[in-house]
Amino acid sequence: MLEKLNFLEQRYKDLSMKVGDPDIINDREQWQKYIKEHAELEPIVMKYREYNDIVNELDDAKEMLKDKLEEDFKEMVKEEVNELTARLEELREELKMMLIPKDPNDSKNVIVEIRAGAGGSEAGLFAGDLFRMYSRYAERNRWKVEIMSSNSQGVGGVKEVIFMVKGKGAYSRLKYESGVHRVQRIPTTESGGRIHTSTATVAVLPEVDDVEVEIDLNDVRVDVYRSSGNGGQSVNTTDSAVRLTHIPTGTVVAMQDEKSQLKNKEKAFKVLKARIYEKVQREQSAEIAEARRSQVGTGDRSERIRTYNFPQGRVSDHRINMTIYKLENFLDGDIDEMIDALITTDQTEKLKHVQ
């Protein structure tokens, strides 16, 4: 750990020189890159310098104990040694936390895709419940929700809904929601009182900048067609719906919510870039050794992560074996307790690899 910290301090010193170099200042793009890295390193370097100061103070205090001292003074120095040792341990743990690799996507907006799974109309109702849950959670955090595409199913149900959540730290909180969500409840149409099990899948994708994913437009087939509403009704009389097919990966995105073909195309490209970026990230993480994966799950949308049990009023997350008996509040967007526990587990696992 100390080797890493020494390296980071040296890098910080180098950057301090570079951000004041007139030649680099004239290169605006390069200068901003160095300024950003400098700002990111500053907190950990300041903490490391405090750590080294305490180490020096502790060494001096221990040296004093080797001398012949009056008993009262000796006890005072011993007390100081104990305090400095405790502070040193605190700083060491803080530095370990700061050395956990940052997820470069944490500060980004997110694209969330919810799809009804097994369970027919009940699955559609549950997918709608999840959409409302995340919308309410976004409201609590003063994030903005923008629906990009939706395909409704009866009253309150959805076959699929794709929406963007815009706000600081949205991805850092919502990224743990990817996977299969399961609901157990008695449908209103069930006269025998039997509990039915349905599922919905959630995918959480970071919004992607153009520089992060380059898509060759020659690799994308663009089809336009007439939008259609529920029951085959024509939403409008122009070919405004857009379907994008990324030929190399077979990724298909269709958008028809907007009346403008251009707006549908823009939204479709946003989702296409996010899906391809996620695919690349998933392939990269698959190459990482199993021991280095977080215990909170791989984020794979085929992994069952949580059960919402209505008869018992509970929500259980299977990745961390945590159960909360506040189902109604949870579905109203009060999900911070669960997300905090997932983050803590994730950080604890990652800490094991910080030496």
Give a written overview of the molecule.
It is a single chain. The protein has 355 residues and is an alpha+beta fold. The chain folds into three domains: 2-99; 110-207 and 291-351, 2-Layer Sandwich (Alpha-Beta Plaits); 217-284, 2-Layer Sandwich (Double Stranded RNA Binding Domain). The protein contains nine helices and eleven strands. The protein has an eight-stranded mixed sheet. It has a three-stranded antiparallel sheet with strand order 6-7-8, covered by helices on one side. A hairpin with a 3-residue loop joins strand 2 (144-153) and strand 3 (157-166). Helix 1 (2-18) crosses helix 3 and helix 3 (28-66) runs antiparallel to helix 4. The longest helix has 39 residues, at 28-66. It is flat and about 90 Å long. The N and C termini lie close together (5 Å). The model is unreliable at 230-236 and 288-295 (pLDDT under 50).
Sum this structure up briefly.
Helix content is 46%, strand content 21%. The protein has three domains: 2-99; 110-207 and 291-351, Alpha-Beta Plaits (2-Layer Sandwich); 217-284, 2-Layer Sandwich (Double Stranded RNA Binding Domain), CATH 3.30.160.20. It is α+β, with helices and mostly antiparallel strands.
Question: Strands, helices and their partners?
Answer:
Layout lengths: L1 H17 L3 H5 L1 H39 L4 H29 L10 E7 L3 H21 L3 E10 L3 E10 L3 H5 L4 E7 L10 E11 L13 E6 L15 E6 L4 E5 L5 H26 L17 E6 L4 E4 L4 E3 L2 H5 L4 H16 L4
Parallel strand pairs: 4-9
Antiparallel strand pairs: 1-3, 1-5, 2-3, 4-5, 6-7, 7-8, 9-10, 10-11
